[in-house]
Amino acid sequence: MRTGTGPDRTRRSHNFQETAITSQAEAAATTRDPADGASPPARPRPVAPFVTALVPALVASALGLWGIERQNSMWRDESVTYQVAHRPLGELGALLEHIDAVHGLYYLLMHGVFALWDGGLVALRLPSVAATALAAAGVSAIGRRLAGPRAGLAAGLVLAVLPVVQEFAQEGRSYALVCAGVTWATYAFLRALDARRARWWTAYGLLLAVTCWLHEFAGLALLAHGVTLALLRAPRTVRRRWCAAAAGVVLSVLPLALVSVGQSQRQLGWLGRPGVGMWLQFLALAAAGALVAWLLLRRSGDAVRAGDRRLVALALPLLTVPAGVLLTVSLVKPWYVERYVLYGMTGLALLAGAGLDHAVARRHRLAPAARVLTAGLLALAALAVLLPWSLLVRSPESRKDDVVAVAHAVEKVALPGDAVLFLPSRRREWLLSFPEVHARLDDLALAESPGASGTLQGTEVPVGVLRHRLLAADRVIALTDPVGQPLDTVPQEVVKRHVLRTSFHVCARTAVRGAQVVVYARPGHCGARERAFEADEMSRM
Fold first, then answer.
1. Rounded to an integer, what distance in angstroms lies between the CA atom of residue 131 and that of residue 113?
2. What's the burial of 212, exposed, middle or buried (CB within 10 Å: 0-12/13-18/19+)?
């Protein structure tokens, strides 16, 4: 017996469309309480859609440009982007065959950026600033469509001022672009739910496919959108079209997924299973989102708007499903890093914007002066909370290390004929973005350069050759992790540490953000300015 056809199916599809139309009409209306017996007040002039999108975009742009050079600092992941994007296309292609295929499209984009304008740190981070502005505009457009212009404006502003969003707005990596791509794909998804023609489903599939090529974990947004359809009880026609679009996205990104799975051990081998702190952070965000959703769906004395129902069904899964799935998978195969699902903040911003809209609507009975005072106090409270975080994310201390500071420290201590050693070898990244500094030193362990070997940090010589080169050197500048970090146990790293400890003295030690620059020398080869430090080090042994 066939089900889901005839009058029942027609009625359900009609109700779904009617809900969409009703939500748009209700979102456009302003909440008010007309006095008994009085004629309703005149409806305010509607705010143009581009205004509610433009204001958050401008705020996000201003915040992104504020301190964009981060006090002339750059951490090692950004250094990878900088030096890889400057490689010739042939070397870039060879690298992606070996590692970092997941970032291939982003590296190509940045290669084009630097070809047009090699503007250093500003050029490195400007695409992320622009992407954050696009994401804020997209969140505003979604919020406006579901809950009205005031909610849309608030949601876009919330996304722009979130500290984690401000952090990655000034990061020379792909995560802000992925956030923008998922946001606008979500907008296309929302439009597709209400449209009779398939063009919005096509736009949805194309946007999400391109975004997955920027970072394949963007595909987890498909799971969130699937949950949204289940919560909205979408008719079969809608579900079938979504399945077709989702299948297109999966098939388009399948080649990248197959290559990156083979690279996953080299790519993500440094990750551990999520700790208690990660789970607590996720649960706190999920609980905050669920609380706002509960308040929106339990308006005391007011009818729950259809747009609020749809907003909750869209935003809460986007906030919780991608991060929750990745955390759960990471219990077996560690893949979770918060920035990989940065786009979940879109869901948080939508819920916060709708919650603020609801709070403002409930204050309409207050006198104008009281409303202004309340708004001013809320703004001051938000500034007091957000300003310290905003200042922090624009400082070198907000990242794990600072390759600019390392390069400057090496320049200060290096003498003609000095050798350099990286412990571990991946710390060669600290100097790769400064070839003029690296070229002045004899890289004892280097066998093939990064470009020639098709790797990120190059390859190193065998253990015997490495020991011979080390013992032939008089002074070695070692770039190593801070004290207390885990030590690599591969043979080359063991030999480096052993020879330095047994055959050299420490002449100088400079601690910089996330690194140490240590000058080692044979007895009697420390410089005059370093002999006092050498004597002090010897006295402690």
1. 14
2. buried
Instruction: Please give the C-alpha separations between residue 140 and each of 52, 75, 338, 411, in angstroms, as whole numbers.
Output: 6, 32, 23, 48
Q: Is 333 exposed, middle or buried (0-12, 13-18, 19+ CB in 10 A)?
A: exposed
Cα gap 511→250, rounded to integer Å: 46
For residue 332, give both structure tokens: 């077996």
When pLDDT is cut at 50, 70 and 90, the band that residue 359 belongs to is: confident
CB within 8 Å of 98: residues ≥ 6 apart: 263, 266, 454, 455
Residue pair 137/33 in contact (Cβ under 8 Å)? The answer is no
Q: What's the pLDDT tens digit per position in 182-219? A: 999 999 999 999 887 889 999 999 999 999 999 999 99
- Could you tell me whether strands 419-423 and 442-443 are parallel, antiparallel, or unpaired per DSSP bridges? parallel
CB 118 within 8 A of CB 129: no
Count the neighbouring beta carbons within 10 Å of the beta carbon of residue 266: 13
Please state, in angstroms and rounded to a whole number, the distance separating the CA atoms of residues 73 and 88. 25
Question: Would the pTM count as exceeding 0.85?
Answer: yes
Nearest to 20 by CA among 143, 193, 235, 236: 193
Q: Residue 298 is which amino acid?
A: R
Cα→Cα distances 410→262, 425, 530, 531, Å = 36, 17, 14, 18
